[in-house]
Amino acid sequence: HTHTHTVRPFAVQGIHSRRSHTHMTLNLPPDLRGAGIAVVPDALPCALAEQVRSELLAADAALFEHQKTRAGEQAMSYHRYCGPELRCWTAVHRQLHALLGLAPYEHLVLNVSRYDPGDFLALHYDDDDACRSFERRRAVVWHLSQGWTEARGGLFVDETCGRAYVPRFNTVVHFPVPHPHSVTPVQSAEGQLSEQNASARLAVYGWIVTPRYSIVRENEAELHRALGCHDRPEPRATLLLYLPPPRPAPTKMHRQGRAARAEGGESENKGKEEEEEGQKKWQKRG
After folding, report:
1. Cα distance between residue 122 and residue 127, in whole Å
2. What angle separates helix 89-100 from helix 46-58, to the nearest 10 degrees?
3. CA angle 258, 262, 264 (to 5 degrees)
4. What is the per-residue pLDDT for 149?
5. In what order do the strands lie in the sheet with 240-241?
6. CB atoms < 10 A from the CB of 147, how many?
7. DSSP string for 53-103
């Protein structure tokens, strides 16, 4: 979807041009939610927390996709929920939006995580420069584990001071991004329920994000199609669109490599090499 935003109150921090778009970083007002780790116990209505937890406990374990890497600061192991939207998901968004006091230019992006014994997150900062549409501003975690103890592991660690936080039920933890933090490995415990979801560390996590903006200066016909406009805009109007940066068209070599692969036979390997070379040139241009 295409959205228009008014950004007059904010100064432009940085601008760089590319083709018909000028991409800019906005100098937004300071985040008044604090510079450190904020912990809010009994953050949301208890009935809502119980409902979300119950839905996750009833979900098939196969709906939690294992996220696993072993590469330095990006080392991690946990399970991300990839099933259908929870019945109370809209209420969760609404409650967290009110609790965190989101500004009109901020959005809330949420996921669900499950940590089984052995799962962890190595030290990281939560900054994500690879996203072309949004910029993370603040991280949020809503804990849904009941009866959790320090001996079970899965502690949230503020790496700036070494303080560890036990994931208490219906507690929200939020902090500015980037911020060094980690999650200690989850330990198995005797006497836990046999069901995998019930004995796991459950949480809703995500980020408060702000959109990256593009100023469209040219290609007025394309602009009108994006906005659904039939009349010409005022000559002096400045139109700011929330659009991901454009990608260049494939090179001639890229198209030739793709065609060669389609022929099959002896030309398949050659076509694949040509396509890979074309893709590398495409990426360099981007």
Report:
1. 14
2. 140
3. 125
4. 93
5. 11-18, 21-27, 213-216, 240-241
6. 9
7. HHHHHHS-GGGEEEEEE-SGGG-EEEEEE-SSPPTTHHHHHHHHHHHHT--
**Cβ count within 10 A of residue 63:** 16
Helix, strand or coil, per DSSP, at residue 69: strand
Quick check: 85 and 110 in contact, CB under 8 A? no
pLDDT, position 125: 92
Instruction: Output DSSP code: residue 176.
Output: E
Residues of the chain with pLDDT under 70: 1-29, 71-73, 129-130, 132, 189-198, 213-286
SS (H, E, C) 3-56: CECCCCCCEEEEEEEECCEEEEEEECCCCCCCCCCEEECCCCCHHHHHHHHHHH
- Contact 139/177 with Cβ under 8 angstroms? yes
Do 126 and 139 form a contact (C-beta atoms < 8 A)? yes
How far does CA 140 lie from the centroid of its chain? 11
* Cα dihedral value 82, 83, 87, 89, nearest 10: 10
Of 217, 208, 221, 215, the C-alpha closest to 4 is 215
Determine the pLDDT at residue 244.
Answer: 44
**Structure-token match 């039920």, residue found:** 169
pTM of the model: 0.67
At residue 115, the pLDDT reads 96
| Residues written for the chain | 286
As a whole number of Å, the end-to-end CA separation of the chain is: 23
